[in-house]
Design a protein that fits this description.
Elements lengths: L1 E6 L9 E2 L26 E3 L3 E3 L11 E9 L5 E8 L29 E4 L9 E4 L4 E9 L6 E9 L6 E8 L22 E3 L4 E10 L1 H8 L3 E2 L2 E2 L1 E2 L5 H10 L7 E8 L10 E3 L24 E5 L5 E5 L5 E7 L38 E8 L4 E5 L15 E6 L2 E2 L7 E2 L2 E5 L4 E3 L24 E6 L5 E6 L4 E5 L43 E7 L9 E6 L4 E4 L39 E6 L6 E5 L4 E4 L52 H4 L3 E6 L6 E6 L4 E5 L24 E8 L23
Parallel strand pairs: 1-7, 2-5, 4-11, 17-21
Antiparallel strand pairs: 1-9, 3-5, 5-9, 6-8, 6-10, 10-11, 12-13, 13-21, 14-15, 16-21, 17-18, 17-19, 19-20, 22-23, 22-41, 24-27, 25-26, 27-28, 29-30, 30-31, 32-33, 33-34, 35-36, 36-37, 38-39, 39-40
Length: 759
Amino acid sequence: MALRLNSFPFPMAPLLALHLLCWFRVSAGNAENIDPEAQSNVPDIEVSSSILDFGNRPIESLSPVVLNLTIKNAGTANLRFVMDEIRIGLEDESDFSAPRNETDFGDSSGDSAFSIKRLIWRFRDESKSHFLPPYEEQEVSVAFEPKDTHRYEDVLQITTNDPDEPETLVRLVGGGFHLGEATPIPTPPPSLTFPVYYNPNNGHWYGLDFERRTWEEAQDYAVQVTHEGYRGYLATFTSEEELEWVMTNVPFWGRQGAWIGGYQDSPGTDSQEGWRWVTEETWSYSNWNEGEPNEILESEDSLMLWLFAGGTWNDNNGFRETVSIVEFGPPVPTATPTSTSTPTRTPTATFTPSKTQIPPFVPQHCDSGFYVLDSFGGRHRVGNPPVITGDLFFGRDLARDLERADTQRLGSSHAKSYEQAVLDSLGSVHFVKHPSRAPLQDFHFDENPDFPKGRAVDLVMTADGQGFWVLTDFAGIYRAGSALPHPASSSLVKSTVTGLIGFDVPFGSLRDPNLPNPGGASIRAVAMIVIDVEKDNQADGYVILDSQGGHFHLAPDGHEFTAGEFLNYPPNHPYHLLDPGAYPWPFFYGMDIARDLELFPTQEGAVILDGFDGIHPVPWNVEGNPVFFATNRLSVQDPSYVQLFGLPYVTYGVDDPTTPEIDEGDPRVVGIDAASIFTDLEFSAGCGYGLYTMDKYGGVFALGTARKEESEVSFNTPGAPYFFPFLLAEDLEFYAFDESSFETDFSDCESCFDGFQLY
């Protein structure tokens, strides 16, 4: 027999690995004679288990039993440890090998029925004595290969400079090995550990397996898992439509490359020849990246999809470990493409696009530019909106919302005076141009543990620009200026909503079971709309949106409206938004994805933005409502797209470099939803049926009549901020052409859009 200890991340059989999660202190020394003062700076060894039990199995099984052992230094000084004594014997010298960076244990007396072959360490030195700095750890895997029927029990001894534990012992036990046939304990098939997405075009499901594997390991795993009764396999792309659907709809979480089910059946031959699919489908479609395949490395006979290069293909060495795309479904013949364009997922519902019966798109060129608010309070002017200057700048991550605060100038002209209001996370509202004119407020949320990272999340201005409402992530509503009834408290009467949601409320059992449940996802209020039909600065009601899409309809005194209270009002009346049963509202069960809720200027409808740039109009099924344009469809009955180019749809998490301790791009850390990057939605200021969305980098995208051209998705002019790789953009505010900072004839606005480009 042979016992091998292999350090991660060297390849091993992952399905046989047993992960030991509990920590045990293994004491082999006496601390009574240690000077207490000397212990102020000493090493402290901890091992993840005091016993490694390899169990039993028939020796005909050739694959080793693999267990893990972790050595950790929990002390405040360097830990020195030596693993040169293992109380077991070697069967013969030929059974032992000690390659580079592996520890030679030497021969040992005894007649045990197994032997140590190697212990692999990833330390810089090659000596037997190794060091661990304080609070660091080293993990090794112990692989046992039986060669006969003996039962065994031996001890691994680790000698250390830990004064409390100079000798740490780990028992190695097992037994019951036997010759001949045996009834092995059945190994259940691996469970599906990643979400899958249904493609209605071919009836197949696709998902990203984010475990890093070689090409063969990925295919071996894929054929073991099932979904809806279908066995998986590495994805095969036999048409442009299939590839575009997957690239559009499957979240890739910022990964760069993924294995798919193509391979070269004649390695070493011409790089262009011999490519096949694992399903034996006809190889009639390819999407090689420029210069590929090129066999630039030896044995590049496995197919990789480059996610960062638009889904193009690359031949690669199959021993490389990376993620993979798995496909499930019945075999289907390779279809002849009927369309070369697959729109992105802008509508709430999924429909098959059509190129017929689509009216000509007539852009209106009606917005002059916008301002972007960054996290530090800086405002970035783009295009030609009114010039609004001021000294406001926080210099740290405080800014949360930017709103217009238009007022009338004093004097006989009664001309409009452009002003902006900025909300900080502590609840304070600041006027940019005339700070002294900001309405007085008597609420402020101190930075303390009860209000982590501040509470204020959304700001709504009154019609006269002299008052406002502030929403906290705990669903509290606060009022100031002309929005505050007198006499009344600045805080809205507490309702059943307050206390149920907030920054620190985890999803718990509500979490989507297909997603991880980390601390990054939480149920909290994210946005609010205020219905004020008479525009008298007094709210008729509020709608609060939480991060899961939950909607709360509150009366002016804070109690919740009940369904049916506004049935007698005419169609599309703003009060129907206050009725929780009047319209269907989207709900993202178990996902931290809702980001913004904006009220249409007529107050007849609203649109919800999710963190991936999906837009969801409320109502979505009433053609006469002004927000129906956001569905991008001709009618409820005719799902043909008005614009064939939808909004971009981000399908992966993005790592924030300002938080190096957290990898937001890893779905196993914070989930794809909590790491989504779209943050703000605004209706066009001058176009009748247009809107804009913005991601945290500052990218701005248009839909409807807000576009210059039907295919021009991005509103990007010289001077537009782009904060990549930092997630700094917080909010934006648009202005119409008649609100420009210069006078011009806008009948021909081609020159107004010079410099537009996609990035």
